[in-house]
Amino acid sequence: MSLEVRYAVHPEDVKSYDTSRIRKEFLVEKVMVEGEINLVYSFYDRYIVGGAVPTDKPIKLETYDELKADFFLARREMGIINVGGDAKITADGTVYTLKYKEALYLGQGIKDVVFESVDASSPAHLYINSAPAHKSLPSRHVTLADANVLQLGSLETSNERQINQLLIKEVIETCQLQMGMTELKPGSVWNTMPAHTHNRRMEAYFYFEVPENQAVCHFMGQPEETRHIWMKNEEAVLSPSWSIHSAAGTSNYIFIWGMAGENLDYTDMDVRQPNELK
C-alpha cells in the first residue's frame, strides 16, 4: 500500500509550470498495479484518488500515518467503481460483488475493508475516491440499472455521450462525495464540452478503455490560459476548483468523474463556451 501526498497550488503559479511539473502536480500515473493499493491524498478538499488490484490473495485497506486515524474510514466516506474483472469487497463482514462498471459506496465508520478478485486470472481493477465525511451513511451497491442516465452532446460536435450518474444525491445519500461515469459514443472524442469550472468543489477524472497506442489529451487550467496533459489508459488527473476539466481523445473512451466540496448540486457549474477558451 502506498499513499502519496500532494499539496494544492495557486493558479498564478501553474502558469509558469513546464510539462514535467504539470504532470508531477496533477497527473496520477500509478493507479492500477497488480497486488497493490495505490492512493494519492490531495489537498484539494482533502480528496483521495487511487486504485486497488487484488490478484491471487485479498488486499486489506489499512489506515495511513498521514490520516492520523485508527482506520481509513474513521472520518471518511468512499466510492469504488470496478473497471476490471468481477470483485468481491467485504466491509465489516458484509460482502458485495461488483461486476464491470458497478459502484459501491462505503459510509464513514466502517472499520474493515477487504478487496478480492473473483478470478485471479481476470483481476478486478477497483478505482477508489474518498472524501472527508461528517456523519455515517448506509453503504450501497449501485449498478448501471440504478444510475441516473443523461444523454448529452451530438455527433456533429464530436461529443455525443452518455453520463451515468452513480453516486449522486438523486441515487444515493452521501456527505459530499459524488461519482459517475461518462461513455463517449463511437466517432465522438470530446468530453465535458462546453468546459466549465466550479469554485464550490474540486474534481478528479480517471480515463479507461483507451485503446492500445491511443491517448487522451486532458485540458486544465483557468479558461483564459489553459494547459494540457497527455494521458494513457487507466490514469487519473486532479482538477482544482479554478480549473476547467475537459479532454479530447484519439479514439472514443470512458472516464470516471468524482468530486467533493461545498454542495451536491450536479448542475452547479460556471460554463465557458469553446470560443471563450484561450
TrEMBL record:
<keyword id="KW-0862">Zinc</keyword>
<dbReference type="GO" id="GO:0019698">
    <property type="term" value="P:D-galacturonate catabolic process"/>
</dbReference>
<dbReference type="GO" id="GO:0042840">
    <property type="term" value="P:D-glucuronate catabolic process"/>
</dbReference>
<keyword id="KW-0413">Isomerase</keyword>
<comment type="pathway">
    <text>Glycan metabolism; pectin degradation; 2-dehydro-3-deoxy-D-gluconate from pectin: step 4/5.</text>
</comment>
<feature type="binding site">
    <location>
        <position position="203"/>
    </location>
    <ligand>
        <name>Zn(2+)</name>
    </ligand>
</feature>
<feature type="binding site">
    <location>
        <position position="245"/>
    </location>
    <ligand>
        <name>Zn(2+)</name>
    </ligand>
</feature>
<dbReference type="GO" id="GO:0008270">
    <property type="term" value="F:zinc ion binding"/>
</dbReference>
<dbReference type="GO" id="GO:0045490">
    <property type="term" value="P:pectin catabolic process"/>
</dbReference>
<comment type="function">
    <text>Catalyzes the isomerization of 5-dehydro-4-deoxy-D-glucuronate to 3-deoxy-D-glycero-2,5-hexodiulosonate.</text>
</comment>
<dbReference type="InterPro" id="IPR007045">
    <property type="entry name" value="KduI"/>
</dbReference>
<comment type="similarity">
    <text>Belongs to the KduI family.</text>
</comment>
<dbReference type="InterPro" id="IPR021120">
    <property type="entry name" value="KduI/IolB_isomerase"/>
</dbReference>
<dbReference type="InterPro" id="IPR011051">
    <property type="entry name" value="RmlC_Cupin_sf"/>
</dbReference>
<protein>
    <recommendedName>
        <fullName>4-deoxy-L-threo-5-hexosulose-uronate ketol-isomerase</fullName>
        <ecNumber>5.3.1.17</ecNumber>
    </recommendedName>
</protein>
<feature type="binding site">
    <location>
        <position position="196"/>
    </location>
    <ligand>
        <name>Zn(2+)</name>
    </ligand>
</feature>
<dbReference type="GO" id="GO:0008697">
    <property type="term" value="F:4-deoxy-L-threo-5-hexosulose-uronate ketol-isomerase activity"/>
</dbReference>
<dbReference type="InterPro" id="IPR014710">
    <property type="entry name" value="RmlC-like_jellyroll"/>
</dbReference>
<feature type="binding site">
    <location>
        <position position="198"/>
    </location>
    <ligand>
        <name>Zn(2+)</name>
    </ligand>
</feature>
<keyword id="KW-0479">Metal-binding</keyword>
<dbReference type="Pfam" id="PF04962">
    <property type="entry name" value="KduI"/>
</dbReference>
<dbReference type="InterPro" id="IPR027449">
    <property type="entry name" value="KduI_N"/>
</dbReference>
